[in-house]
Amino acid sequence: MRKRILLPLLLCWMASHAQSPVQKIIDSLKLQLHQKPDAKQKAKLYGDLAWYYNMISMDSALVYGVKSLDAAKSLKDDKMIAQALSDYGAILYTKGDYDRAMDILQQCLQIRTRLKDEEGIASVRFKIGNVYFRQFALEKAMGHYMHALQYYEKTKNAQVVGTLETNIAAVYHALKNYPKALEYLRRSEKYLTQTNQESELANTIVGIGNVYFSSHDTVRAYEHFKRGAQLAEKTQNLPAMGTAYNNLGLIYTYRKQPQKAIEYITKSLALRQKVNQPAEVASSQLTLAINHNTLGQFAKAKPLLLESLKVFEQDSIRDKMGNVYVQLIPVYASLGNVDSVNYYTNRYLKHVETNLDDSVVKITAELEAKYQTEKKEKLLIQKEAEAKRKSLLLALVSLFAVFIGLVGYLIYRQQKLKNRQQEQEHELKLAISKIETQSKLQEQRLNISRDLHDNIGAQLTFIISSVDNIKYGFNVENPNLTSRLDRISNFAKSTIVELRDTIWAMNSDAISFKDLELRIMNFVEKAKTAREHIKFDFAIADDLAQVPLSSVTGMNVYRTIQEAVNNAVKYADAGKISIAVSRVGERIQVVVSDDGKGFDVAQADTGNGLKNMKKRMGDIGGNFAIASAEQGTTVTLTFTA
């Protein structure tokens, strides 16, 4: 976005440029316009032309300002519309049409606020502040200046900060706070001198002269106006030059040197007409007419006064209007025009009366405001006293509540500790009881296992020994009897193995899958002696090898696997039997599978083997599933460790 900031000549609208460079820029922009640019580029060119024409030709600036705004609206580009509004508002300000300028700039502010365009908001607030200043709404002007100043100080834009400080100084000047005005102007002067910005420095120097003139220090005022005029002439800053010459003419008017005053004011008027500043032109015309009247040159004063009056009435510049009425009275008196003398005398008296009425209204409003302020202050004091009383009461209540809460907390904490201690004592008793119970159970298991080993084991061994003695001592020749004796011996031996497994399980607090693997491989090796062609495979997931199972769970799983393997060996005619142990979610899964001939599960379901396997898994909260087909049988056990 082009940085179009209002530079000060006590709020002069734009930076001064020599007309020749500006005209060259305008010619270049027009050349680009004839090269058939696209709609967006054309809108931008219109805006640039409006901006630069604002420095040398008001009519052309207005034409291109309207074209720029229309082009931006046709594109429906909010950012471009805001920029066109900003440019057009600047042109209307320079023209002196402050009401329309304010309306246009407020529209721009709304769009940029919606777009959250911080830089654009600061720029347009700067311009709105200038319009408010021209409308003598000084507090509003200061508010917008300060808002813009915050942004430019934050972004460290020293050039714009210097410009803003000059405009803020103008507000302080209008408020007759001359020390504050000089403070801000001196800041600007220092910055512009350091950065060698002589054109802008001319504006600031003239501003300092204005403050001294208002302070009735015409010597310092004269020095600064002369210096400002020299800088402005050097840099072709026409607005600053016009103001400096006008104010030098005011000093000569104040010193009652009308000829010298007319010389400078005539120069000022020509310059102000050249840059098309209607309000400033009217001000110079009034000052020039006053000096002509002083010299008795009423014929020269009359047209100047009537032309300036039109502008002052249009812009409602009431203090200048009163000055014109007073100056027209001797002009028409010199012409012997009694009616006009009476007319302007009455207008002047009415003007004075209106000012008095306004002053009365203002004083009354100030008194009313002061009364209301005092009333509000008293009410505020009463409210503050009441608030303090309530605050004190609330503090006491809060303190009491905190005390009660603290006591309650201590009682609660003591009771909680007591309950916790009781719970711990109860848990300790349960733990001791559990340990004692486990000890007794372990002792019973040891006794049972000892009895099984000593009694039943010994009896089974005796049976085996007796059978062998019968076979070899009596030289039995009957094949049926020999077969029967062998079956008794083998059954007794198998029972002893089963008994040993039972005793092993009873004596173990926990059984791992590694232990189960060893036990299972024992009976697998025996099975191989009966079916040498069968290949056995046992696989355990690494994370399950050492997972402990209770003796009950371990024994039930072992017996179920044993039953499944025995069935496969005996009935399946299998070539391979696999046992795979893995984890499925939170549960453990054991799969016993073979590649045998399979069987009809529905018919076999009535057998004791399948029922026993289901029951064993049910006893430990597990699941038992069997699937059989021509390709083999799969037994699946799932349970929780």
TrEMBL record:
It catalyses: ATP + protein L-histidine = ADP + protein N-phospho-L-histidine. One of its GO terms (cellular component) is membrane. Its EC number is 2.7.13.3. It comes from Flavobacterium caeni. Residues 1-18 form the signal peptide. This is histidine kinase. Keywords: ATP-binding, Kinase, Membrane, Nucleotide-binding, Phosphoprotein, Signal, TPR repeat, Transferase, Transmembrane, Transmembrane helix, Two-component regulatory system. The keyword Cell membrane does not apply. The chain crosses the membrane at residues 392-412. The keyword Hydrolase does not apply. Pfam families: HATPase_c (PF02518), HisKA_3 (PF07730), TPR_12 (PF13424). TPR repeats lie at residues 82-115, 202-235, 242-275. One of its GO terms (molecular function) is protein dimerization activity. Residues 423-641 form the Histidine kinase domain.
